[in-house]
Specification:
This protein is of the alpha/beta class and 317 residues long. It has ten helices and 13 strands. 34% of the residues lie in helices and 26% in strands. The structure holds oxa(dethia)-CoA (UT7).
């Protein structure tokens, strides 16, 4: 795998911590101190699939290839308006591609899982150019009366185009089933055969347990991929981690013993955008001219499942 283009798209509405304190019993001070989040972009009258297509088109433009040259689209997505067809198929139509399309759901770790699938397709020679993307709308999953979760999230989409190459140095994904700490259950329509009452459960998160598990998994995954690639922590130019919460990221940074310049963040601007956070941050770094050929990037993410994953990829665009 080699990354040849990145893109991202954000909804237009900015929701500040002060806006939230008008809606519920919270404060800018609490949210900033516990999460590092100042604002988030949230979907109002846009459709998530339009944002996804915008991110995809920007990634294609950055890569300098046409949608018709894509051999596969893999999209990480947890929730959107359509249960079927897949977000990837919807994006395919919007950008004018014609190739196999599939969505996957590994919660906030989805982008790294999507990279794993893409690498398998590239290695087997079944694809040359793949659009790997994530589009997420967690603000549709939260209970807007639950201040412990709704202040944490924002919406967005991120994408990258990958092609044949040897830039991916190591990748690890894992899952250990634990549905109790982090879940969301939607209500399904009744049928003549299902009489039990279905109950919609908005996003539930046992915050402190998720915090601890996230730190443990991320540190361990990063050590695993570093060792698999024969690299030391100082060889990495940037640690691009799932933007869940400033405190989690800072904890991981301290446990790992790396300087803050090596751990870029944008959680302050966008909140937690689930699996879209890594490609959104990657695109920001690319557009800001912060990435140089040969830079080693470590990605790490964690989320519901409990899933986690990490990889190391050289920037050779
Ligand atoms: O992608 C998924 C990954 N998930 C995450 O990254 C989330 C991981 N967890 C966390 O980041 C933190 O656990 C939270 C930010 C969710 C919560 O921070 P915390 O330091 O663990 O706070 P807490 O849950 O222990 O709550 C402390 C207090 C409670 O009040 P009492 O019981 O001490 O009176 C909460 O009711 O803060 C209260 N509280 C709030 N107060 C003001 C909870 N949410 C809010 C709020 N505003 N929005």
């Amino acid at each position: 795998m080699r990354i040849i283009g990145t893109g991202s798209a954000h909804p237009k509405r900015t929701l500040t911590n002060d806006d939230l304190s008008q809606m519920m019993d919270t404060s800018d001070a609490w949210i900033r101190e516990r999460t590092g989040i100042c604002t988030r972009q949230i979907i109002t009258d846009e459709e998530l699939d339009d944002l996804a297509a915008e991110a995809a088109q920007k990634a294609l433009d950055d890569a300098g290839i046409a949608a018709s040259e894509l051999d596969y689209i893999i999209c990480s997505n947890v929730v959107n308006e359509y249960v079927t067809p897949s977000m990837a198929s919807i994006v395919e139509g919007k950008i004018g591609a014609l190739c196999p399309c599939v969505d996957l759901n590994a919660a906030c770790t989805g982008f790294i899982y999507a990279m794993d699938y893409a690498e398998a397709l590239l290695q087997s020679g079944r694809a040359t150019n793949i659009l790997v993307m994530a589009a997420e709308e967690p603000t549709r999953m939260v209970d807007w009366n639950d201040r412990s979760t709704c202040v944490l999230f924002g919406d967005g989409a991120g994408a990258m185009v990958v092609t044949q190459g040897d830039s991916l140095k190591a990748l690890k994904v894992s899952s250990k089933s634990n549905t109790s700490v982090l879940h969301y259950k939607r209500t399904l329509e009744p049928t003549p055969f299902i009489t039990k009452e279905e109950r919609h459960i908005p996003l539930y998160m046992a915050g402190q347990e998720v915090f601890k598990t996230a730190v443990t998994c991320s540190v361990s995954d990063l050590m695993t991929v570093l060792s698999a690639a024969g690299l030391s922590k100082d060889d990495i130019t940037y640690y691009i981690l799932h933007q869940a919460n400033f405190r989690i990221l800072d904890y991981i940074r301290h446990r790992f013993g790396v300087d803050s310049e090596k751990l870029p963040m944008n959680v302050d601007k966008y909140g937690n955008t689930s699996s879209a956070s890594i490609p959104m941050l990657l695109d920001e770094l690319n557009r800001d001219g912060k990435l140089k050929k040969g830079d080693l990037l470590a990605f790490s993410a964690f989320g519901a499942g409990f899933t986690s994953g990490a990889c190391i990829i050289e920037w050779n665009k």
